[in-house]
Here is the input.
Amino acid sequence: MTYDDSKLAALGDLGQSVWLDFISRDLLQSGGLGARVAQGVVGMTTNPTIFAKAIGGGASYDDQISELAARARSGPAIVDALIVADVREACDLLLPVYERTGHADGYVSIEVPPALAYDTRATVAEALRLHDAVARPNVMVKIPATPQGLPAIRRTVGAGLNINVTLLFAIDVYEQVVDAYLGGLDDRVARGEPVDDVRSVASFFVSRVDTKADREIDEELSAQNDEAVRARLETLIGTLGVANAKLAYRRFLEISASERWHRLAERGARAQRLLWASTGTKDPRYDDLLYVDNLIGAQTVNTMPEATLEAFLDHGVVRRTVGQGVDEACERVEQAARLGIDLKAIAGELQSEGVALFRDSFDELLASVERRRTELLTGQEGRMSA
Here is the structure.
């Protein structure tokens, strides 16, 4: 591939920030993250699946695991220490970006364990603990947009934490997320506390919508004999993820024009940006930048896996697109509903599946660290005996 490092700066000129959807100790200590920052990456997101791959995939963490195991730390305590150490180091590497951008970017996200996704009180407590454990101004705590997560978002924003709201798929849930964010800011104003340095993003997932919707479309096609209906169904394949995101952005603009928002903005509050998540193309039939080139616009973030970032640097097109074709996007979603493809139901299923997926990844991470802890302890005992 041929890389054009000016593209990320050009995206920034259009109001879109690029964050890296990946972390590993090798990336941090080899200078890899620094190189990405030099290219124009201005933030980083993590999740349990990313850490499961990073920590379980090599020996980079062995020294710390061995040290903590020798101090009789449990498997969960070791996992927590490994994650916090990586996020803290990434925060330090991105701190110059945080300062240069006036605290607009330079954030690193750390996620509340998915086992707490349906427990408001435990989520709030863990978010506060993680914030204090990382102890960096540019850490963002990730909280899922579950019914129990929404009040936790309001409370943690009210406490002054930077919050990345994750596992967001539906427009109506997005509206509740914004209400929770603004409610947290309202609470701070009511207590006479500042709101100018509280930041948040709403992570709206894209490719997973197409993955699930396409599956339902294929099922409808297999049962459908009417050629006209089949033709309408086929036009929807691989289009609903972007359409859904465009409608979310339209709602963002509407909220940004509201009286409630303007009252907070006058006090220095910052908008909760939409962050496009799950932007790697999962279906090989689709353009590898389907979820990047079509969602460029002001006050947005695109968090890209490394392969997607490299593809964009090679052949991505920089132009405003997220506000284009919104009427067509609305018609696609309405047509999908008429044909039996219910995006709201799909979104609900995706959120539940996302929590379960991250929980499985976290359990996998715990198991792999526990195995490695045992192996390293056994090896130490063997060397001591010898």
User: Anything to note?
Assistant: The two ends are 51 Å apart (CA to CA). The first strand starts at residue 16 and ends at 20. The first helix runs from residue 6 to 13. The chain is about 60% helix and 10% strand.
